[in-house]
Amino acid sequence: MTKSMNGTDKMTEQSVLRLSDAYESKSEELDLELRIRFININPGYNEEMVEKSPTLYQYVKFVDIVRKYQQEMSFPEAVEKAIDECIKNGILAEFLRKNRA
Q1: Which structural domain, as residue segments, surrounds residue 30?
Q2: Which of 21, 57, 60, 68 sits at a 20 to 30 Å CA gap from 38?
Q3: What is this structure's pTM?
């Protein structure tokens, strides 16, 4: 399983997490092992992959704009301002118009 992430914690470009690492008591024999590959999509990471998907690229831009505004205002205000800016600049515009609420 692969999962993209763009949280604010410092992460490597890619990492693998194993469900068994969360087991309280470990055994030698695993009946099931779930591995998840995380891909960091923050600006500056995995840019070639992000640029191949216009929607993912625009999502990364949207999140970056929200974070920029969040340095100056509350999260709800930052999201509203980012939505306005993105619609104006054609970033996820159709999706944001439909799903603004």
Answers
A1: 1-44
A2: 68
A3: 0.70
